[in-house]
Write a structure and sequence with these properties.
Chain lengths: 956, 516
């Protein structure tokens, strides 16, 4: 890496690093802030100056830092003539704008923010012109859109600023997105995303079938950025930005990015019919249209904005012509346009700043009041008009020269005539700018008495005006070498013949130019009637259309979204089910199925009865689900039938689990139902219920079909291993339990945690319910008619009390035998919780609660922790989590059972299940207390023993 | 066999019950314990990522049972990376929840949070399809608890939708697992990979249905069309830190598809060849469209962010649907990016929304205190979400576009991504302009009598450094992801290659002879 190449990345990064400074330096004052903003720019400019001699000799300086090599993205930079030209323009203008803005911005504007954005933009723009990787270029490209968005919206309290910023972002950001596509295609064709590689592949790219899509996408990006018709409308609205921004971004640099890109890609993309017709035609239309509109704009900045559009059109047209000569002219005009247009914007800003208006109709005669500003403005405006001795004249002559030789769709006239027309209109608005603002009598109704600004403010435009003259008079000396090296970089080879001088002799271009000047003067003289005509004529207002388009798309989007996501859970489920069945069917259809291997079995009578019961109960649930209590009972029936099914199919563990889960669930649901309406209201119309019914039946048929398909086919499973290893490896003969606590103990661990979380969630839900409006509703609802008069009946209290010890013993028994016989911690936990649940139901929660001292949170916590620690205990033996160890204990009277780590794990399961169920119950009872349930101190409402006692007491 | 592999599951699983019952009365204690746990999780995850970085597939056989008979955990580059992502995100979100006091607005936040981490890590690490179901349950129930944390009618309604849709998904998961077991007789992922590859095409109908059903199950989690309906309301109404944490939840679905539909139902499997991609791709396009349209049409900030998450899932799944190693690399990069981008936006929104009298409604209101700071955070988050440079979204999008070069994908894929980006940019710019720019004008033009303090309204505090730090951390993560895109992509590329060569995975789990 030569010293030059190591400077290049530093130049690229300097503005970004510098952007950190102004925000802080503003605390030291405005001048300090501006000075420190200028510092990185100056530094970068100096470094560029160091590199410049090599580039002027024709060398290309390259630097490369790998970033994302897998994608082909690298932070690689290169500096050739074109890059040098633009980099110099960006940095030089940046410096002038920094100076100008120091005086332009008022004390109320956050200057630190402004300079931060400005430097960020400068960095992004600089990045575009020295990127050697098109992906990197895209990054900088989008960054310019973003920083431009921030700068246009800088005066965020002004609606024009906000709207202009959003419009610019939408248009240029959108164009940038299109360009991403184009660039990726380009890289795809060339096999590399490096610009220097792509530039060598012109023939292959133009021959590719992907050339046209790539071209169109890239052109959309370039045209939006450079405000070409029909995307030109955003630029005038971007003028809501402070004038330094308009001068910098929207005339000198950012809008030239599109032109730059056309120039950069010129060797690769130009030279085809598509390029010629799309690019040159667009440029021509833009040039004429922009100039035409500019004439009738009364806002100084709007006039300049449309004139910028027009000149960008001119540049685009030149590049679109596809000849080397035209391309070099474009390069020359880029320099000239930069000098005069930026100075004009700054002059307009000065006028606005001093006179407090930019309305041409309220101005005039300023030449006498602010002579310095007027001199600068007049010099630069004459250049814009293309008057000899000013630099605009030279490039305009060359443009007309190039245009006069262009044949467009067989016509020799179209391009020269339109180009002359564009020049004519350009003369008109330039002269209007001069005469209506600076010439004429001094008025006495300016909003503020104008006078020349301090030197600092006119220094920058003055400097540029001097350049306008210097280039205009001595073009070859001042910019000749730069045009040559930059033009050489654009055309990518031999330079065409051209000469930078004022007098080319009498040729077509001179004649066209003279027509333009004369015509322009005529238009200016006729301005008043023409203006009336223009104002009266109907014409599309871009902003109105754009806003309507955005509003309409937002409204449509909102409408679509809200109708799609209307919050109807039944609709969401319907879509889900239909989609699932359809996709499942589609998947099924893609493959075939071998014939069934299992014969159909005869149906025994008992199975048939059970099946009928199940079907009837299910159908009844559907028909009666509006009566919730009955539906719940029916669901209980279904659960029981499923348990019976398990028994029939010799799955006692499953049956036990199913029965106990069923019981606990139904009991809790019954308790919960107390606080809910007893009937489900009819909410959907018949057609929707029919639709849902059809969907449900369809899904049911599909599931049945699927189940039938695999039930009638043999398959081999891994379960033989479990049967074989249950006793020898897991220490238990009940394979189901060994699977639960050993083979797949990890699943069980997860599931008890699910249960524990459910308990916690219900508790948390209950607490938040009771602190919200729901609590008030609970308090105010009268549940008394639902309540039984005998809430704690004698028989139930006695029976549950008698059953309690039995149930506990059964629970313990089931728990202990679980490893070898049907049972286990899960079922045991449920059995004991049923026993406790019944106490609560019989005697009320408060009474029961007072008699038990274990906290449910703790029980869940301990359960999960015990299970977890049991599993982790295996680590001590160097074994994986949940590895079991066991031995056998023979308890006399019961039977031999294994005591091992699995036992402890099962204990954890037991505790969690019990704790979770009880916490749910506790949560329900808290709600009940809120709903006004009284606390009973006695175990039962009517206690005969009390009565006996009373009689006895009374008898004595 | 390193016991550290199970630590991301066991650590929160032991910590959560302790927080739930020992520390439930003291929020400071719970915060400290939970924070320490998450910090440890980050450290463990870093260690595991280093371990997996050697390219090996590390298997942890629970209960010392050999696969496929017991359950195994499998640590490879992909699962290690997902665990690390989860841990880092959790640390950010948790700090926000504690700093803003969200965690004290209901019960058991930290216990549920740790359980949630356990569920997510478990899902990423498992090598068993049924165990994946179990952990889906864990993370579903914990996320439901977190989602309704703090209560409120609208939140509970949205929570109901969330839980009902996801329970429907769980049911379908069981159907799918049943079908798989009835076809192959196993549920171990590596074993399934072997068995499914042996199924001839003319007997593939059942396994194809199973593959499709599983994909739908995972698509519910990933919020893909036409089952994305639950996401916008859920995320928009969840407590903001929870919504930020949920940025990883959708990724669980994406991860599961990436894992199962490459190792088991990969492109090289005759029975299901091409099936997942064929259907995933159009669904992803539609999802992206719905998300982008939702962003443009949103009238509130929280739903807008939620829809942007939908759009990002669409983008992510576009890349997943291509089922090539390079596209998967792009998908993984974008996955990391969109996780932090979504989190950053939700956390930022929380700071703003809690200080606006209008809440998250996108209407003109006076500027909040620290308007500039919030505007900057929003701008950064919006850049990330819209996929604009210099944050990682742009690189992710470029990679995805580059990966979707296949002629059958390019038109639909590119159009969806580029047009979707435009809609999102326009939508976010609109929202930002209303929230942060227009508001300054309102404050300026307010008549003075309105400026007097409303006595009823609680005083609005400016956000302290600790409240802003998590949002900034998420954005910093995006910046780092962008700067170090090269090394990160190296890792991700290796992870994708690993994913598309299931032989190593199979050999590691089942022993060398099965893996050929």
């Amino acid at each position: 890496m030569s010293s030059g190449s190591s400077l290049l990345p530093i130049i690229a990064i300097l503005p970004f690093l510098g952007a950190l400074v102004p925000g802080l330096m503003i605390r030291a004052g405005r001048t300090a802030c501006a000075t420190f903003t200028a510092a990185p720019t100056i530094l970068a400019l100096v470094m560029l100056g160091v590199l410049a001699p090599d580039v002027m000799r024709g060398e290309v300086i390259e630097a490369r830092i790998e970033w994302l090599p897998q994608l082909g993205l690298s932070a690689s930079f290169f500096l050739d003539g074109l890059g040098l030209l633009f980099a110099g323009m960006i940095l030089g203008m940046g410096l002038l704008i920094t100076l100008y803005a120091r005086f332009y911005l008022s004390g109320e504007d956050p200057m630190g923010q402004f300079y931060t954005y400005l430097l960020l933009f400068q960095g992004a723009m600089l990045g575009i012109v020295i990127s050697d990787n098109i992906l990197l270029l895209l990054i900088f490209w989008e960054l310019t859109s973003l920083t431009s968005f921030l700068l246009i919206g800088y005066w965020k309290h002004l609606p024009e600023g906000r709207q202009g910023a959003r419009m610019a972002l939408a248009v240029t950001g959108g164009g940038g997105l299109a360009m991403i596509g184009g660039m990726l295609i380009l890289g795809n064709i060339a096999g590399s995303y490096d610009l220097t590689d792509i530039l060598t592949q012109g023939d292959a790219i133009r021959a590719s079938e992907w050339y046209l899509p790539a071209l169109i996408l890239i052109l959309i990006g370039a045209f939006t950025k450079s405000a070409q018709f029909p995307f030109h409308f955003w630029l005038p609205h971007a003028m809501a930005a402070p004038t330094p921004v308009s001068a910098y971004l929207h005339s000198a640099t950012m809008v030239k990015a599109g032109v730059f890109l056309l120039a950069r890609m010129w060797p690769v993309l130009s030279g085809t019919e598509a390029w010629f017709y799309i690019v040159s035609t667009t440029g021509l239309i833009t040039m004429v249209l922009g100039a035409l509109i500019a004439i009738f704009k009364d806002d100084l900045k709007a006039l300049l904005a449309f004139s910028t559009v027009s000149h960008l059109g001119l540049l685009t047209m030149l590049l679109g012509l596809g000849t080397k000569f035209a391309a070099v002219v474009a390069v020359f005009h880029i320099i000239n346009h930069l000098t005069f247009k930026a100075a004009l914007f700054m002059s307009a800003g000065i006028v606005d700043h001093e006179a407090h208006t930019r309305d041409i109709k309220r101005l005039g005669g300023l030449a006498r009041l602010m002579p310095v500003t007027a001199a600068i403005a007049i010099v630069t405006a004459l250049s814009m008009a293309g008057i000899p001795l000013f630099n605009g004249f030279l490039s305009k002559e060359m443009m007309l020269d190039a245009a006069s030789e262009t044949v467009w769709a067989g016509s020799h006239l179209v391009v020269p005539v339109l180009a002359t027309l564009g020049a004519l209109l350009s003369v008109a608005y330039s002269f209007r700018f001069i005469s209506h603002v600076f010439l004429g009598p001094v008025r006495d109704d300016y909003p503020s008495k104008p006078h020349d600004p301090p030197f600092g403010m006119w220094a920058a435009p003055g400097f540029l005006a001097v350049f306008v003259l210097l280039i205009g008079i001595l073009p070859a000396t001042i910019v000749g070498p730069l045009v040559a090296v930059a033009g050489g970089a654009v055309v990518g080879g031999e330079l065409p013949y051209y000469s930078l001088k004022i007098w080319h002799g009498v040729n077509a271009a001179l004649v066209m130019s003279m027509i333009a000047v004369a015509g322009g003067l005529v238009v200016l003289l006729l301005h008043r009637p023409l203006d009336r005509l223009w104002q009266a004529a109907p014409r599309p207002e871009a902003k109105v259309i754009f806003d309507a388009l955005i509003d309409a798309s937002a409204a449509l989007s909102g409408w679509v979204t809200r109708n799609l996501h209307n919050g109807s859970i039944s609709r969401y489920l319907a879509i889900f089910v239909v989609a699932t069945v359809a996709l499942g069917f589609a998947a099924w259809n893609g493959g075939a199925l071998a014939p069934a291997t299992r014969p159909m079995l005869p149906i025994p009578a008992v199975v048939a009865v059970g099946w009928v019961l199940l079907v009837v109960a299910t159908v009844l649930v559907v028909t009666m689900h509006r009566r919730r209590f009955q539906a719940l009972v029916l669901i209980g029936v279904i659960g029981l039938m499923v348990s019976v099914g398990f028994v029939y199919l010799s799955a006692p563990d499953l049956a036990l689990t199913q029965i106990s889960v069923e019981t606990v669930t139904i009991m809790l649901l019954l308790l919960a139902l107390h606080f809910l309406p007893k009937h489900t209201p009819l909410e959907s119309p018949l057609w929707r219920r029919t639709r849902d019914g059809v969907i449900a039946v369809g899904a049911g048929v599909a599931v049945t079909g699927l189940a039938m398909a695999f039930l009638t086919r043999d398959f081999s499973t891994i379960s033989d291993y479990h049967l074989a290893n249950s006793y020898t490896g897991g220490g238990g003969t009940n394979v189901v339990n060994v699977i639960l606590v050993d083979f797949r103990g990890y699943d069980t661990y997860g599931e008890i945690i699910v249960l524990g979380i459910a308990g916690l969630t219900i508790y948390a839900l209950m607490v938040s319910l009771l602190t919200g409006p729901a609590a008030r509703r609970l308090r105010n609802t009268d549940y008394s008619q639902d309540r039984s008069r005998d809430r704690h009946p004698l028989m139930m209290v006695v029976a549950t009390r008698a059953m309690m010890p039995i149930a506990v013993v059964v629970g313990i028994y089931i728990f202990l035998r679980g490893h070898n016989q049907p049972g286990g911690g899960f079922i045991a936990g449920l059995v004991i919780s049923i026993a406790l649940l019944m106490q609560y139901m019989a005697s009320g929660f408060a009474w029961t609660q007072a008699r038990q001292r274990i906290q449910y949170h703790a029980m869940i916590g301990w359960g999960v922790v015990v299970a977890g620690l049991t599993g982790a205990g295996a680590w001590l033996a160097g074994k994986p989590f949940l590895t079991s160890a066991y031995g056998y204990i023979d308890l006399p009277g019961i039977e031999e059972f294994g005591l091992g780590s699995a036992f402890l794990f099962d204990l954890g399961v037991f505790l969690t299940v019990l704790g979770a169920v009880m916490l749910m119950l506790y949560s329900l009872s808290r709600i009940a207390r809120y709903a006004g349930e009284t606390v009973n101190v006695e175990p039962m409402d009517y206690d005969p023993s009390k009565r006996v006692e009373a009689i006895r007491n009374g008898g004595e | 066999m390193s016991h550290w592999i199970i630590a991301p599951v066991v650590l929160p699983a032991l910590l959560a019950p302790l927080i739930a019952f020992v520390m439930r009365h003291d929020i400071t204690l719970a915060r400290a314990a939970s924070f320490a746990g998450t910090l440890a999780l980050v450290a463990i995850a870093v260690g595991l990522t280093v371990l997996a970085g050697d390219g090996g597939t590390h298997v942890y056989a629970l209960g010392d049972w050999p696969a496929p008979f017991g359950i195994v955990l499998v640590l490879d580059r992909l699962s290690a990376m997902m665990v690390l992502l989860t841990a880092v995100l959790a640390l950010i979100v948790q700090t926000h929840a504690a700093a803003t006091g969200w965690d004290a607005r209901g019960r058991h936040f930290h216990a549920l949070f740790q359980f949630q981490l356990m569920g997510i890590c478990g899902a990423f690490l498992t090598g068993d399809a049924f165990n994946l179901f179990v952990f889906f349950e864990v993370l579903l129930i914990a996320s439901y608890g977190l989602m309704i944390h703090g209560g409120g009618k609208v939140r509970l309604q949205a929570g109901l939708q969330y839980v009902v849709m996801n329970l429907a998904g769980s049911t379908l998961f069981l159907f799918a697992l049943g079908t798989i077991y009835a076809t192959t007789g196993t549920l171990n992922i590596a074993d399934l990979a072997v068995k499914v590859r042996e199924i001839p095409v003319d007997d593939a109908a059942l396994i194809r249905v199973a593959a499709m059903l599983l994909m739908i199950v995972f698509a519910i989690k990933a919020a893909l069309f036409p089952i994305q309906f639950w996401l916008p309301a859920t995320y928009a109404n969840a407590p903001a830190p929870v919504a930020a944490l949920f940025a990883i939840m959708t990724k669980v679905g994406a991860y599961a598809i990436l894992r199962i539909h490459t190792v088991v139902f990969g492109p090289d499997v005759p029975a299901t060849a091409g099936l997942p991609g064929t259907w995933l791709f159009p669904a992803a396009v539609a999802t992206l469209a719905i998300g982008a349209v939702g962003v443009l049409g949103a009238r509130r900030l929280m739903p807008m962010i939620a829809f942007s998450v939908v759009a990002s899932m669409g983008t992510l799944m576009l890349a997943v649907a291509a089922f090539t190693p390079w596209a998967t690399t792009a998908a993984l990069y974008y996955l990391i990016h969109s996780t932090f981008a979504g989190a950053a936006l939700f956390l930022m929104a929380d700071l703003v929304v809690s200080r606006r009298p209008e809440g998250d409604r996108l209407s003109t209101a006076p500027a909040t205190v620290q308007n500039g700071l919030f505007a900057a955070l929003f701008f950064a988050g919006a850049l990330a979400m819209a996929g604009m440079p210099p944050l990682s979204g742009f690189l992710g999008k470029l990679m995805i576009l580059d990966a979707l070069r296949d002629p059958s994908l390019i038109v639909a894929g590119w159009t969806a991504i580029l047009a979707g980006s435009l809609l999102i940019i326009v939508g976010l710019a609109r929202a930002g302009s209303i929230l942060f720019w227009k508001s300054t004008a309102v404050a300026a033009h307010r008549p003075p009598e309105d400026d007097c303090e409303d006595p009823v309204r609680p005083e609005i505090r400016p956000a302290g450094p600790l409240e802003v730090a998590p949002t900034m951390a998420a954005i910093a993560a995006l910046a780092l992801l962008s700067i170090f895109a090269g090394p990160v992509t190296d890792y991700l590329e290796a992870a994708s290659v690993q994913l598309f060569q299931p032989d190593d995975y199979i050999a590691a789990v089942l022993g060398p002879q099965k893996g050929e």
